[in-house]
Amino acid sequence: MIPATFDYAAPETLDEAIRMLADGGEDAKPLAGGHSLIPLMKLRLASTWLLVDLRRVPGIHGIHREDGRWCIGAMTPHAELERAPELGVVARAAATIADQQVRNRGTIGGSLAHGDPASDLPGVLLATEGTVTVTGPGGQRTVAALELFRDYLDTALEPGEVLTEVRIPTMEGWGFSYQKFNRRREDWAMVAVSALVKQTGDVCEDVRIGMTNMGSVPLRAKAVEEALRGAPLNAETIGKAAEQADEGTSPPADLNASADYKRHLARVLCRRAVTEAAGL
Ligand SMILES: Cc1cc2nc3c(=O)[nH]c(=O)nc-3n(C[C@H](O)[C@H](O)[C@H](O)COP(=O)(O)OP(=O)(O)OC[C@H]3O[C@@H](n4cnc5c(N)ncnc54)[C@H](O)[C@@H]3O)c2cc1C
């Protein structure tokens, strides 16, 4: 439980942080809340010789609205998301992350950059079709949720790049739900499902469903979405569509659940999430 020796720097500007990371090479890493990186370093599953702490960097913390999107600074902790109900499904999912201590320190940027498919916010970013802004030695670029998550703990961020902002459509007029299943309230999700539904009368105009912990990356329940688009929203259509929630998934078996049980959870949680998002 003791990490290998490392250096620590706390730059005062984004430019300085990017320069330090670039000079440090592949084994220099940004430090946000430290609630994923430090445990991995202690277990010697991650090694880095330089931690570049982003806490003092101005301009990458806080929430504001711009052009139909919520712009969330990467260093915004889960606890602040939880206290912003206007963020809809983002706030709802953030409130389910671990305990208050973890939510006070863990950040949205750290969670998305880490790329753990069992984390709550990656699936939500995918369902809302949000983007992240990434800044590095080559300038700034925008990465869509679909391109961000490449594999287990592997994202499209290049070494030396800093995730600076998360942009999420305000999703006005959409109903939402976040359904997470775990044995104890503070635990990671065995499976979680986020659902967003736009309807006219009782007809489903559009629907987006994000799945957590059903593969090496967060996934969309495409078969369910296709079955529901244009269909009347009632218990029967939702129940039938949700039966396809595990199509195209490959959930990892672990100490908590077999792959088959996770598939079962996906179907049940998907039905519950769409039902709540549709206001039924
Ligand atoms: C006991 C416990 C329970 C938890 N339960 C849950 C849970 O139920 N659900 C859940 O979603 N999460 C859970 N977490 C994880 C928690 O949400 C972490 O805070 C989160 O995964 C990582 O955020 P962080 O700010 O701590 O990042 P860090 O640990 O600081 O960093 C994680 C990784 O991302 C990189 N990184 C961080 N910020 C940036 C950035 N801005 N740009 C580029 N790279 C960056 C780091 O270099 C590192 O590789 C839990 C953690 C603990 C300790």
What does this protein structure show overall?
The structure is a single chain. The chain is 31% helix and 26% strand. It is of the alpha+beta class and 280 residues long. The model has no long low-confidence stretch (mean pLDDT 96). The protein is built from eleven helices and 14 strands. A hairpin with a 2-residue loop joins strand 8 and strand 9. The strands form four sheets. It has a five-stranded antiparallel β-sheet. It has a four-stranded antiparallel β-sheet with strand order 11-12-13-14. The termini are far apart. The chain binds flavin-adenine dinucleotide. The site of flavin-adenine dinucleotide (FAD) has 29 residues, from strand 2, helix 2, helix 6, helix 7 and strand 10.
The order of strands across the largest sheet is 4-5-10-6-7
Cα gyration radius (Å): 19 Å
Count of β-strands? 14
Number of helices: 11
Order of helices and strands: EHEHEEEHHHHHEEHEEEEEEEHHH
Could you describe the largest sheet, including whether it forms a barrel?
5 strands, antiparallel
Strand fraction: 25-35%
* Residue runs with pLDDT of under 50 for 5 or more positions: none
Structural class: alpha+beta
Shape: globular
Distance between the termini: 48 Å
Distinct ligands: flavin-adenine dinucleotide
**Assembly type:** single chain
Helix % is 25-40%
Q: What's the rounded overall pLDDT mean?
A: 96
